[in-house]
Amino acid sequence: MTSAGKTPGPPGGAVDVTPPDSVVLRRGGLSWLFPRRAAVAALVLLPLTAVLVTAAVLASSTGMSVGDTLSGLLGTGDAGSVMIVRDFRLPRVLVGLMVGAALGIAGCLTQTLAGNRLATPDLVGVNDGATAVVMATAAGSATGMVGQWWLGPLGAIGAAALVVLLAGGAGSGGYRVLVVGIGVSTFIGAVGDLVMSRENDNTAGGVFLWAVGSLNGRDWSVGTPLLLVLLVLVPFVLAVGHRLQLLRFDDDMAASLGTDLRRTRAAALALAVLLAGVAVGVGGPIAFVALAAPILAQRLSGPTRVPVTASALTGAALVTAADALGRVVAPVELPVGVVTSVLGGPFLLWVLFRADRTTGKA
Q1: Backbone angles phi, psi at 286, to 5 degrees
Q2: Which of 9, 208, 324, 351 could bond 56 through an S-S bridge, CB–CB 3.0 to 4.6 Å?
Q3: Residue 27: enclosing H or E segment and its boundaries?
Q4: Contact at 8 Å (CB) between 95 and 219?
């Protein structure tokens, strides 16, 4: 018999603390906590994303048939079809895929750091900082051409530093970071609107299309640097994401488990800012992806994980689907940011009115 108030454990007296959605794999003296549910989520998201990429390549705002698109993709069609599909549409789709992945990861990191599902780069000033710097380079331009993509991370870093400074540090409570971020975001956005209101129609019109989030004209000139950035940053994100699991406990518990809280938070914030800044620099401030992707990924992966991989796949799928939808849903092509904003509004209301089961708050 067991004593009152105690839960019997497995033979030998050890208590099994393995999360219910995981399996312990052992080989000799090594063991690995395999995230079974997260793996299933990834296996579902990978083919879904592949289907969406195929649909996005086939989607046409010019009335090109599926047969002509396939001929252009395979290189067997006329020169015009090959150029449209291979040189314009396919790079655009793949760039959108990477932009969505970067936004999904950045949102996952900021939400986990702040302990709040609303604390994303969209709402804490990072995206607006990146947008403002890129837009500033177009001021005075006769063509309205926005600046280079690498200006995005610079603006994101500046905005993030300002938010952290005003909030009292990266370790501040989630709501404080959120409120300060909204204030900084509003101020930066107002300054950007003021600058653009004094520009000529060509400049304002050209910047507007990018400022709502657009993949139009994005090719390998930005896709290749973006791919290299992701190849460098994602391994660090995966390593930090493993440490972020412990931030679900209080600080004392996390520290007792061997986590350097200051370094972990600083590394996660730096990675989130860089990824969001690069994504905005390439595709503009595509709204709601960084908010929705981690929330959907969390529901797929379970509450015991920081869903970095699932957030990347979900963000990639969302941007790819929204870009394809914008090319076929209206007589004229809609920027991807317009589509995500329209769909993201109801999603935000759903998040606000539905408490997080793991924390009991939004």
Answers
A1: -70, 115
A2: 324
A3: strand 23-27
A4: yes
Q: Is 268:115 a contact under the CB 8 Å cutoff?
A: no
Tokens 């408490």 belong to which residue? 355
What 3 state SS string does 113-170 have?
HHCCCCCCCCCCCHHHHHHHHHHHCCCCCCCCCCCCCCHHHHHHHHHHHHHHHHHCCC
CA distance from start to end of the chain: 43
**CA–CA distance, 56 with 328 (Å, rounded to integer):** 10
Q: Structure pTM?
A: 0.85
Q: How far is CA 331 from CA 60, 129, 328, in A?
A: 11, 33, 7
Question: What are 198-218's pLDDT values in tens digits?
Answer: 777 766 776 777 888 889 888
| Residue whose C-alpha is closest to residue 141's, from 188, 201, 215 | 201
Q: What is the pLDDT of residues 48-102, one digit of tens each?
A: 999 999 999 988 777 788 888 888 888 888 888 888 888 889 999 999 999 999 9
Per-residue burial over 2-26, b if 16 or more Cβ lie within 10 Å, else e, is eeeeeeeeeeeeeeeeebebbeeee
pLDDT of residue 2: 42
H helix or E strand, kind and range, residue 31: strand 30-34
Q: What's the chain's length in residues?
A: 362
